[in-house]
Amino acid sequence: MTTYLSVWKLRFLTGLQYRTAALAGLATQLFFGFIFIMIYVAFYSQSTVNPSISLQQLAAYVWLQQIFLTFVMLWFRDNELFQLITSGNIAYELCRPCGIYSFWYAKLLAQRLSSAALRCVPILIVAVLIPAPYRLTLPPSPLALLLFIVTLLLGLLLIVSISMMIYISVFWTMSPTGSTLMIAVTGEFFSGMVIPVPLMPVWMQYITYALPFRWTSDFPFRVYSGQIPETEALWGILIQLLWLALMLTVGKWWLNKALRQVVVQGG
User: Fold this and answer.
1) CA-CA distances (angstroms) from residue 86 to 21, 79, 102, 265?
2) Where are the domains of the chain?
3) Which InterPro entries match (predicted)?
4) What CA–CA distance (Å, rounded) separates 187 from 193?
C-alpha cells in the first residue's frame, strides 16, 4: 500500500506543474459552460411542457460537468501507458515488485485529481458569482452536499476503473485509437455529458440506468441539485459500490489474462 500511495503522490505533484494547460482548459470549460446553459435557457423559454428537471437544476448540472470534467470524462488518457503496451516496454512494468493494475490505477487517479485541483476552484467561483439563471446554486441541504461528495468520489473511482478497460484492451488491438473512441464516445453519451439523462426519452433512460456510465457523473450531479432525493441517493451509493467492485474484479482478471499472453520481442 505504501508503494501505491508514493506513486499517487508523485504523479499528483507532477500533474500540478502543468499550469499553462490548466489555464487553457479553464477558459475552454467556462466558455462551453455558458454556451450550453444559453442553449437550455432558449429551449426552456419556448417549451410548452414541464421538463422533469428545472432550469436551475440543469444549470447546476452543466456547471458541475465543467468543474469536475477531468473526474468524469473518458477522453482523459495517459499516452505513456499506451506506449508501454504498444512498444513492448511493458517488460519493465513486469519487473516491478507490485501489482500492475493497482500501480496504473494509482497513477490514473492522481492525474485526474491533480488536473481537477488546478481548474475546479476558479470555475466554481465564476459559476457561483454570475447572475441567474446561469448561476450555480447551492445544494438544497447539508446532507445533499455530503451525499454529493460521497457519490462524486465513488464516481471518480468508477471512471478510473472503466478507463483501465481501455488500456487493457490495447493488449489485443495494439491501437489506442479504436478502444478510446468506442468506449469514450459510448460512455460520454450514456453518462449524460451530451444530453442530460433527465432530458432523454424514457426508453433511452432505461438503457442508461442499466449501464455503469451514468453513475460516474449524472448521478452525483443530480444528487447535488436535489433532483434525486436523499433516500434514493443512498440506494444509488450502494449501486455505485456494486459497479465499482464488478469493474475492479473484471479489470484485474482481464489484465492478468492479457499479461499471460503478452509477447515481448527480443526479450
Assistant:
1) 26, 11, 20, 11
2) 2-261
3) ABC-2_transporter-like (IPR010390)
4) 9
